[in-house]
Amino acid sequence: MAMETASGGKRIAMMQYGPTWRKLRQIMHKLLMPKTAHSYRPIELVEAQQLSIELMDDPNHFLMHHRRYACSTMFNITYGRRLPTWDCQEMKDVIQVIEGFTSIQNPGEWLVDVFNSLEYLPQFLVQNWRTVGARLHAHERKLWMGLWNQLKSDVADRSVPSCFARDFLDSDWKEQGIDELQAAYINGTMIEAGTDTSAITLNCLMCQLALHPEVVAKAQAEIDRVIGKSRTPTWDDEPNLPYTRAIIKEIMRYRPITKSGQLHMLTEDDEYKGYFIPKGTIVMISWWAIHFNPKRYPDPYTFKPERFLNHKLSAAEYTALADVSLRDHFGYGAGRRVYHPLTIFMADFSVALVCTWRSKDCSSPSRDCFGDSISR
Ligand code: HEM
Predict the structure, then answer these.
(1) Using a 6 Å cutoff on CB, does residue 261 contact ligand 1?
(2) Are 223 and 362 in contact (CB under 8 A)?
(3) 150 shares its domain with 244
């Protein structure tokens, strides 16, 4: 239902492992090499600046500010355009895609996914699944294709700044057998995958910071020591902010984006610790069970960033470790499908930046990340 009907078979996060998935991951990997990924950093800083001002000026809409921040960052990285306000049409369209897709993803919700032979029955007997899926697909197809076609005509007019979609267009996607709809979806997925994941994490983070003034005080002391009050943070500060980094890791442990990780299906029979698991079985990383296991995380129900102070590596570096027992947390998944390491780093630190920004005495820096004075 979610992949074939609602996604037209094009959503990479739900795609079966195979040649098409490998091709897409390979292209994404090339386009997100460190040099290119680093060129996106100013985008994140500007968006973090706008977010901090929005949160101060209009705290009641914090949920929408987090969404705008995350969505605009991904929009800019992907299509070279910002989303200046949370109530603009493009934001509404992206949110409609995310909410529509989220609404059909509950495990076991669609009978046709559980009992495949039901697809041969008239759909009105089976939750009208084709109509629901087709309606969602029509909306996202229109949005993603519209952005992709716009990009192509803007490139022809030479009016597109360097961005992921432009680099994708210049890559060998056609020679690799990727069609236009797939190209539009992969770019759309960047925006979709990076929006609510980051926004939800920020929401949870704000909630915990409000509940734990002692954590804010420690972060503030670190920020004052490393950054001071006369300038805003930059990426170069990140390695010197271990407590801030630990806060990010703790929120990823304490409130992963869902209770279970992404669902996966076995493509062949397997055996684990003597248990036979047949092909077709749905498996998931139970984040809740792992992240609240007291043997792994003592006193697991307490929000305690200190537990990660000895985890000196970034989330990207931890996901690359062969020994999973050394991992910091599993919030970005595990195994072959784990979310791209470099983008993890970007998401990880952008959240950290905002956290630094919002800490109480850091609210009125006099200069921005480029050293220019800020007038409000
Ligand atoms: C706090 C932020 C984020 C979290 C917690 C998060 C988490 C995840 C998780 C758990 C998965 C599933 C991995 C699996 O199948 O086991 C995933 C997949 C994915 N994420 Fe993210 N993500 C975040 C931000 C982003 C951003 C910013 C991007 C875009 C650059 C992104 C792009 C993707 C893509 C393309 C996939 C599909 C990978 C595949 O199946 O091959 N994510 N993410």
Answers:
(1) yes
(2) yes
(3) no
Q: Is 262 in the pocket of ligand 1 (CB under 6 A)?
A: yes
* pLDDT tens profile 25-77: 988 888 887 777 778 888 888 888 889 889 888 988 999 999 999 999 999 99
With the most atoms of ligand 1 within 8 angstroms of its CB, the residue from 191, 339, 348, 351 to mutate is 339
* pLDDT above 60 for 360: no
Q: How many domains does the chain have?
A: 2
Q: 252 with 313, same domain? A: yes
Instruction: Verify whether ligand 1 is closer than 6 Å to residue 69 (CB atom).
Output: no
Q: What is the pTM of this model?
A: 0.89
Domain that holds residue 318: 229-360
Distance CA(101)–CA(106), nearest Å, equals 10
The per-residue pLDDT for range 302-314, each reduced to its tens digit, is: 999 999 999 998 8
Tokens 């409130």 correspond to what residue? Answer: 255
Contact yes or no for 77/192 (Cβ under 8 A): no
